[in-house]
Write a structure and sequence with these properties.
The protein is mainly α. The protein is 68% helix and 0% strand.
Length: 330
């Protein structure tokens, strides 16, 4: 291949391509480059400042270069006058995947507070995703472990066993697990978040409650019927109400009357109202005539927004039938 015989010429050629497919071809080409060739790619890339803000290019190059020489990759990325999107996390992930403790030791030398925070968070989280046992043991052994615990995105850590899950529970206070901008903000949740069978074994308390709330939220998207089994264990509040509403939506999508019966059977007034509203609106997407007829017979004065939703959806598809129904049920 040309890239193997003369990598400099091959890289310069691809960076010089023009046209609507040039960016896609370049991105694909960069994925084929060996880590030891990334310095050549970086040198050519730096000659094209018009590409510096192209999402993904700098990430791919600097992440690859960091596999060979992470400190040099960092210096190149942070020289004054250069600005590349999202490269701090890219270098941290690459470095931590191979040498996590070296990456964390380096993080303390980063002067810029924002960059240091992002680098540390990404390095810690990457380590937790690649080797949870070593990561958990290291965190637990730190004299200032609380400060490290706060910087981890725990939702992304790959906790593959109940033993690892329990080790995490010992480290992370419930206030951090619950915090809106804490460990449940940045990443797609790992499978452990929905492991209700692990969570239910925890002793009664704030940690168990917080994790059950997160599990119900996650399961309501992936397995609503399993989320329903947690409903009685959730405390009154938005998590319980939203879970009930989502389960109602799931059921009404397949069996409208069953979904509405489920909503009607909820004891909590707010949960019942939210589930009814969600169920009627979902029904209206597939069968606006049926939803409208049900609402005329069973609707309540405080649910006017539901009939507006039904009418709007019906009128978009069958305006004449919608108008005729409205005139016949004034």
């Amino acid at each position: 291949r040309w890239l193997d015989k003369d990598p400099q010429a091959a890289i310069e050629f691809v960076f010089g391509l023009k046209g609507p497919r040039a960016e896609k071809l370049l991105a694909g080409f960069l994925r084929e480059i060996k880590p030891e060739q990334m310095k050549l790619a970086l040198d050519v890339f730096l000659k094209h400042p018009e590409m510096w803000q192209t999402l993904g290019l700098a990430n791919t190059i600097l992440e690859g270069y960091a596999k060979v020489d992470p400190e040099s990759a960092w210096r190149e990325a942070t020289l004054e006058g250069r600005s590349f999107p999202h490269v701090v996390g890219a270098i941290a992930r690459s470095w931590a995947a191979a040498h996590p403790q070296d990456a964390l030791a380096f993080s303390s030398s980063i002067q810029d507070r924002t960059r240091r925070s992002e680098f540390t968070r990404e390095a810690l989280t990457t380590w937790g995703r690649t080797d949870a046992n070593a990561f958990l043991a290291w965190i637990a052994a730190q004299p200032d472990r609380d400060s490290w615990v706060e910087q981890v995105q725990w939702v992304a850590i790959d906790l593959a066993s109940e033993e690892q899950f329990l080790a995490m529970v010992k480290l992370v206070p419930p206030q951090l697990l619950e915090r809106e901008r804490g460990p449940f903000s940045y990443y797609t949740p790992n499978d452990w978040v929905s492991r209700a069978d692990w969570i239910e074994k925890l002793p009664e308390g704030e940690t168990r409650t917080v994790l059950l709330n997160h599990a119900a939220k996650q399961l309501s998207r992936s397995d609503p019927e399993k989320a329903l089994l947690l409903l009685d264990q959730l405390p009154p509040g938005s998590a319980r109400n939203n879970t009930a509403a989502i389960v109602g939506v799931y059921r009404v999508a397949a069996w409208p009357q069953d979904g509405l019966a489920f909503a009607e059977g909820l004891a909590n007034e707010k949960a019942r109202a939210l589930a009814r509203l969600s169920a009627v609106q979902t029904w209206a997407l597939s069968d606006p005539a049926g939803a409208a007829a049900w609402f005329v017979a069973n609707g309540k004065p405080g649910e006017r927004s539901a009939i507006y939703f039904v009418a709007r959806n019906w009128a978009e598809d069958e305006p004449e039938k919608a108008v005729a129904f409205a005139l016949g049920n004034e």
